[in-house]
Prior knowledge:
Number of helices: 19
Low-confidence stretches: 1-11, 27-39, 54-67, 80-88, 296-321
Amino acid sequence: xxxxxxxxxxxxxxxxxxxxxxxxxxxxxxxxxxxxxxxxxxxxxxxxxxxxxxxxxxxxxxxxxxxxxxxxxxxxxxxxxxxxxxxxxxxxxxxxxxxxxxxxxxxxxxxxxxxxxxxxxxxxxxxxxxxxxxxxxxxxxxxxxxxxxxxxxxxxxxxxxxxxxxxxxxxxxxxxxxxxxxxxxxxxxxxxxxxxxxxxxxxxxxxxxxxxxxxxxxxxxxxxxxxxxxxxxxxxxxxxxxxxxxxxxxxxxxxxxxxxxxxxxxxxxxxxxxxxxxxxxxxxxxxxxxxxxxxxxxxxxxxxxxxxxxxxxxxxxxxxxxxxxxxxxxxxxxxxxxxxxxxxxxxxxxxxxxxxxxxxxxxxxxxxxxxxxxxxxxxxxxxxxxxxxxxxxxxxxxxxxxxxxxxxxxxxxxxxxxxxxxxxxxxxxxxxxxxxxxxxxxxxxxxxxxxxxxxxxxxxxxxxxxx
Length: 467
C-alpha cells in the first residue's frame, strides 16, 4: 500500500479483516509499515467499521498475534469500541478496554484509573492472580499479595507507586534511543571485536548445500551478558552519590539480572585509540555500519503515531522481541535527581503505611526498584569515557529464555544474537594494524563473505600507525 493513493483519498481501503490482516503482516517487513498505519488511521476516520472487524481482531489477540494489538490502540484513540460503533468515550469504557489487554503499555492506564476506586483495584488484583495482566505485573501483584494480606488498599498503593517508578525508568531509557545524529565525514558507527567473532558469524559448513541454512542462522552480532564487562563501574556509576547509597546493595544483588550489550563507537572508523582499547590492541577487527543504519533509526512518519510507537517499544523489547540502539550518556546530574525523587517517594509511602519495620516487604520493594534501575544503568557512564562516543545495542532476557545461548569458551559465556542481517550492503570490515598475516586474514574473510553471498561487504586493512 502506497502513501500516494491514500493522499488521493481513493476508496480502496481494506474492506474486510482478511485484507486488513494481510496489510498488517506485510507492514512487518518494514517497507510499508508507516503506510499501513496511515491507511488504518484514515480507515478509522472515514470508513464505517462493522462488528466483524472487531470480532476477528479480538480473536487475533486471544491467539497471540504480535501485530494487531498496536493498531487497536489507534482504533480506540479514534473512538471505536468493541462493537465497531463510534460513541463518546468514557473512563469506564477505557478501563474495561485496557484491562482486556495484556500489553505493558496499558498497565499504567488501568492502574491510574483505579487509583481511588476499590472496585477497579480488586478487578486488577484478581486479573493478576489469574495471570491476565502483563507477566511483570502478574508477578508483582501476586508477590505483594503474599506480603500484604487482607488490605487491598495498601497493596494497591504500592502497586501504584512501583508502576510510576517502572514507567519512569522505561521512559528514561526510551529518551536515549538513537535518533538521527549529525556526524562528521570522518565518523562512523564502528564495532571493534576479535577475528574469532567473524569466524563464528561466517562459519563454514561441512556440506556446501548448507550455506543457505547457515545464512539464516549465523551472520549475527552477539550481545553478551553484562556480567563479563571488564569495567567494575559498569552499571553502578549512576548511583555513585550520597543520596542513592542505600539502594546500592540491592543494585549489586540484581546487577546481572537480564541485560545484554554490544557496543559501538562513533570515532573515525580506523581510530588508533579504539584499536588499543577494544580491538585486541590492534590484532582484531573493526566492523563499520553504513551511515543509513544510524542516521535514520526511527522513521519520521512514526512521530505522527508517537503514542502507539512508544507502546510498541514498551511491549516488544520487554517481551524479548527487539534489539534497539541507544546513545550512552555521560551526564548523570539530572537523572540522579529524578531517581532520588522516586526513591524518596517510595520511602515516604513506606512510612505512611507504617511498614518501616516490615523487613520482608521493604526488601521486596527495594529489590523491585533495583530491577527497574536495570532499564537504564548501563546507558550512563563516567564522564572520563566521554571521548568514546559510545552507542549500545541493549536487550533484556531472563536466563531461562530460549534466546539466551552459551558460547564456545572453556567456561562458556551467556549471549543473545541480533537478527541474521548484520552484513548488509555498505558494511565494511577493517583488519587491525597489528594483525600479523593481513593478506591471509583478508582472503579468509572475503572467502567466507562470498560463500555466504555477501558481495557488497568491503574488506580492508587498517591505515593506523602503531609504533
